[in-house]
Amino acid sequence: MMRRVPLPFVKYHGLGNDFVVVDGPLMDAARARRICDRRRGVGADGVLTVLPPRTAGATATMHIFNSDGSVAAMCGNGIRCVARHLADTRGLDGDLVVDTDSGPKRCTIHRGPGGAVEAVSVEMGPARLEGEQEFRVGGEALRALRVSMGNPHAVLFDAPERARALAVGPALERLVPGGVNVGFARPGPSGIDLVVWERGAGLTDACGTGACAAAVAAVSRGLARAGAPVEVRLPGGALAITVAPDLVGVTMRGPAERAFTGETDL
Ligand SMILES: N[C@@H](CCC[C@H](N)C(=O)O)C(=O)O
Questions:
Q1: Per-domain residue ranges for the chain?
Q2: Where are the alpha helices (DSSP H) in 103-175?
Q3: Is residue 148 within 8 Å of 127, Cβ to Cβ?
Q4: Torsion of CA 85, 88, 92, 93, to 10 degrees
Q5: Ramachandran assignment for 213, one of left (phi > 0), alpha (psi -120 to 50 degrees), beta (any other)
Q6: Within the chain, which residues score under 50 in pLDDT?
Q7: DSSP string, 9-24
Q8: Pick from 96, 182, 246, 249: most CB atoms within 10 A?
Q9: Does the keyword Cytoplasm apply (predicted)?
Q10: What's the CA-to-centroid distance between 17 and ligand 1, angstroms?
């Protein structure tokens, strides 16, 4: 195997949606795939690269590789981890802006009484409701609401179960050119239960943009309230998502945990 220059990284996760975070430069997709491999690599749902900012006032740019090496324009759990990384490594606090391929996003670092980072909130909009679409998977007709959170989502009001996501997700992901993230959402009076089959990463413990898309879809159908936090419960834990009455503004709040640091020559 070719020996590469050791690459320092920090492993983070948001509700079990886990990422290898590196400070640039950008690696190639094949290296990202090797790093994400859970048996032969570090293991992660994606690699997030922190690059110089693109817009005035921003602190950095986040580049996203999914575990299969494909590139995504936005990642909700990932941006909380990047904001936490910037807070930890650059001594930042309060508000900061992170540029992404879907535009600049304002993040806020929330600290507990001891000063530890307790949560990160992110202005995730603009959301775009793209209407209903019917998909055929294995002879079954499935209706989904298409929502863009900068990346594409198909939200099904369907059983929020891993088995269901595994049975339907892989085929449905490929029915949209460029792929789509597939959410299985059950809205109720106390919030939304959700499982997401992610484009380029498969079944994950949590998906931040998926939680926002499910909340937008539910509010648009009168199944959740606008203007107040909606609890979106994923296998890895819960996010608080607030959808503005215009269905465009969306705020997400949730944890970003640092797991370990390392160096890889993969
Ligand atoms: N896990 C992420 C979304 C990552 C990108 C997605 N798989 C895509 O390809 O669009 C999140 O927390 O939003």
A1: 7-124+255-264, 128-248
A2: 162-173
A3: yes
A4: 100
A5: alpha
A6: none
A7: EEEEEETTEEEEEEES
A8: 182
A9: yes
A10: 9
Given a contact cutoff of 8 angstroms between Cβ atoms, the answer to whether 216 and 154 are in contact is: no
Token readout for 104 is 């600049």
**98 to 17, 18, 73, 107, 259: CA distances (angstroms):** 19, 19, 13, 7, 22
Other CB atoms within a 10 A radius of the CB of residue 228 amount to: 9
Pocket (CB within 6 angstroms of ligand 1) = 17, 64, 66, 72, 75-78, 151, 181, 198-201, 204, 207-209
Active-site residues, by number, are 75, 207
Closest C-alpha to ligand 1, atom 3: 75
Cβ-based neighbour number of residue 174 at 10 Å: 12
Residue type, 107: C
Q: Which of 13, 70, 74 to mutate to test the pocket of ligand 1 (most atoms within 8 A of CB)?
A: 74
Residue 38 identity (one-letter amino acid): R
Class in CATH terms, 7-124+255-264 = alpha beta
Per CATH, the architecture of 128-248 is what? Roll (3.10)
Mutate to test the pocket of ligand 1, among 64, 70, 107, 149 (most ligand atoms within 8 A of CB): 64
